[in-house]
């Protein structure tokens, strides 16, 4: 009987030892070599009172996690990539249907995007 009580005390001690261990965090990097993971999250987008009125919305925006190169890519490196892969840049693609009849390539037109 004494043996069973000692065994029970040891079992309880072992259980309490392992249940108090912190959870092990495993990080999986889905990015290709040479890239880093930028964790997504929510932030309040907009300017303070010194910004333009339409920039003062202060909306909560959620961005998904994404991968980005560790180092900058130069224009020469990008040109080499385009040549090697026959990649068609955004500037070389045809205009979308909604912009088909607009002449957005002349300076008088408003800026619609930054690249």
Write structural notes for this entry:
There is one protein chain. The chain is of the alpha+beta class. It has one domain. It contains 2 helices and 4 strands, in the order H-E-E-E-E-H. The strands form 2 sheets. A two-stranded antiparallel sheet has the order 1-4. Strands 2-3 form a two-stranded antiparallel ribbon.
Quick tags:
115 residues; alpha+beta; two-stranded antiparallel ribbon
- Our Rg estimate from Cα atoms comes to 28 Å
List the strand order in the largest sheet.
1-4
Strand composition percent? 15-25%
Average pLDDT, rounded to a whole number, is 76
Give the biggest beta sheet: 2 strands, antiparallel
Total count of domains? 1
- Shape assignment: elongated
Provide the low-confidence segments as ranges.
none
Quickly count the helices.
Answer: 2
Residues in helices, as a percent range: 25-40%
Number of strands: 4
Q: What is the straight-line distance between the termini? A: 79 Å
The chain-level structural class is: alpha+beta
């Amino acid at each position: 009987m004494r043996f069973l009580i000692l065994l029970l005390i040891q079992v309880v001690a072992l259980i309490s030892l392992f249940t108090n261990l912190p959870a092990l965090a495993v990080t999986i990097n889905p990015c290709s070599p040479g890239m880093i993971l930028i964790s997504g999250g929510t932030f309040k987008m907009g300017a303070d009172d010194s910004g333009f009125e339409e920039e003062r919305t202060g909306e909560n925006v959620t961005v998904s996690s994404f991968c980005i190169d560790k180092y900058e890519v130069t224009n020469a490196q990008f040109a080499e990539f385009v040549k090697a892969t026959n990649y068609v840049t955004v500037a070389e693609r045809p205009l979308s249907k909604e912009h088909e009849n607009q002449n957005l390539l002349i300076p008088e037109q408003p800026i619609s995007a930054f690249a």
